[in-house]
Amino acid sequence: MDIQQLLTLLLIVPIVASIVIWLMPTNFKVLSTVHVIGSIVSTLIAMKAVLSVIDGKVLFAYDQMLFLDSLGGVFLSLIGITGLLVNLYSVKYMQWEIEKNEITLKDAKLFFALSHLFVFTMTFSVIANNIALMWVAIEATTLSSVFMVAVHKGKKSTESGWKYIVICSIGLAFALYATVLLYSAGFSVINDSHSIMLWTTLMAHAKEINPDVLKLIFVFALIGFGTKAGLAPTHTWLPDVHSEGPAPASAMLSGILLKCAILGLIRYYAVVGNSMVGFEYVQSIMIISGLVTIFIAALFLIRQHDVKRMFAYHSIAHMGVIAFGLGVGGFLGLFAALFHALAHSVTKALAFCVTGNMVKIYGTRDMTKMGGLIKIAPITAILFGIAICSLVGVPGFAIFVSEFLIVQESINTGIFLPVVLFIIGLIVIFIADFSHFNLATFGESKTKILTSKIEWSANLPLIGLAALIIIFGIFSVDGWVTLLNNAVKIITGV
Amino acid sequence: MIDLLSVLSIAMIITSLLVFGLRNYKISIYVYSLQTFLLVGIFLLLSSSHLAEQLTVWAGIAFVTKVIFIPYILLRLIKKLGVVYEDEPVAGFFVSPIIAMAFSLAIAMSIYPTYLEFSLIKESIPLIASITIFMMGIFGFILRNSAIKQILAYCMFENGIHLSLALMAYNSPEIAELGILTDAIFAVLIMSVLAQRFYKYFASLDVSKATELKG
């Protein structure tokens, strides 16, 4: 298989899966089978593509409009791994929703079809070398996922769908201005309309582009992609959207989509950092953005009793951690930021999917009405515990690794005050989370239990996610570390 | 030529004020259509005055999609919902357009020199117009609560970006412009469906009444 075929298949397979599901008869068994097969094939192709760029090779196709480098490979692996496990879980989850009459079979069909379209848009955003197409793909991720979020009928679902499309579209409009400005500024240097729209060309000529306009471009890009990534102060859509969608939709949005938006921002971060502006400028902005985001999220997190809303605020906090990692910079800081993208992806996917189990058991998302989960559904309780332990940065779980590296690099580079604030933010989150965890897991249930039966087919993908959290928390996975090292080299331009 | 370009650009700014300020949905939609028609005129003018042939194609596509199709979708939406007038917006009918226009013009005047420096077509007034219309759209979201007015605000800032794109990057690969436009059309379609749902559940188009999700 040549490179062009490989990159084409990355895009074609999810599109075909989406269309086939859409055209299928409305039969749950048939739909879920095609959904699972489509997800497995998409992931296999994604993993094949990632394996080809681990060593730093760059794949180009379609006159370089599409490409895959190690940096893209990091994010494509999230789409492949997290995407597959969440899609596998979504089969059982949708079946529960249909049984409870929360949604119809037709809604489930729409959800499955859209989830593949969503994977297509996210993959496209990761492999687009053309900066305008990258923007188009990121905007399309919103459009393709609106009705995954608003699949339920009712006031809350409609409100969350509206907020999602409106706020993200406004934010991304600024990112489009960043794109247009970067193109024009680049064109004044390289008189080639095709080539200057390519990120690889912009990186190669970053030093020649006017530094003043690059500063403005980065601010626009931060507003735009930062809104989509849930960075404060334009994060307001995220708690509503991530808490109202079905659990697998929340898992995909939080576990993968936020990272695709961060990748968009990282591409601009790299261009501006490698220009005459230098990394100091982008790093100082990202440190402020990261800290503000972490503190706002921590503040709201303390008083959350809705388990999904709590995890939604966690998503904001952890995007703040990634932003802070980018702000710290240096090889280790960037490595940690990228590592955090994977660590948070698998952790948050597990967290949101576990809430699906919890809502099935208790019939509520309110943790004050839960309790005794460890006796009612021990596997779900353990999975919940693993997600929480990772989210708050307990050693031995994936997120600890990146947070530790960020702190280490901050101390190495002498950014003492910000790192103290960073640690305080994390401690607040730690305390809030464990009190919530106790509330739901131990003691007696404060509400009538609807069921204690969670099928293995639902738990197995979650066990897979939990295993990844522990593996990445304990072991240094060689291939992954090499991929990250090469990705960092791309950002730093070394 | 230059004068006509300025006239069309200023007319676009005025239409943005009208789209923003008018209470009657139907007239607002017609004015939006007129604004896009003016945009098409600017594209055609620039294509001949600056030998930017690509803009002729852009004009054709914009005419079909934004002068005809999007207004048709919106007119059908208000007919289906049976709504005629917008409810009182934030800061009132009179004040909110003035605030929006004042801030939009101020922002446009402060940043257009940066745009002008790198613009392929170095025309000040159309550039000011593009940023002003974009900002009017952004303020439309902030200051108007009606779901339909917010869709129109989206359409408006998309027009602003479209004009910026034509001035600053008309020679960019066509696929980029087509992609951006496709996203915009789908966004309007999706927002229209959501606006219908909104009206069904909240018996109003006032998005400030949606307060189920807080905290």
Average pLDDT reading of chain B: 89
Helical stretch count of chain A? 19
* Percent of residues in β-strands of chain A: under 5%
> In angstroms, what is the radius of gyration of chain A?
21 Å
Approximate shape of chain A: globular
User: Can you tell me the overall shape of chain B?
Assistant: globular
Number of domains of chain B: 1
Give a nutshell description of this structure.
With 494 residues, chain A is mostly helical. Chain A is 78% helix and 1% strand.
Describe the structure.
The complex is a heterodimer of chains A (494) and B (215). Chain A is built from 19 helices and two strands. Chain A is mainly α and 494 residues long. Chain A has one domain. In chain A, a hairpin with a 4-residue loop joins strand 1 and strand 2. In chain A, helix 4 packs antiparallel against helix 5 and helix 11 packs parallel to helix 17. Chain A is globular and about 65 Å long. The model of chain A has no long low-confidence stretch (mean pLDDT 92). Chain B is 80% helix and 0% strand. Chain B contains seven helices and no strands. The N and C termini of chain B lie far apart (55 Å). The mean pLDDT of chain B is 89. At the A-B interface, helix 5, helix 6, helix 8 and helix 9 of A face helix 4, helix 5, helix 6 and helix 7 of B.
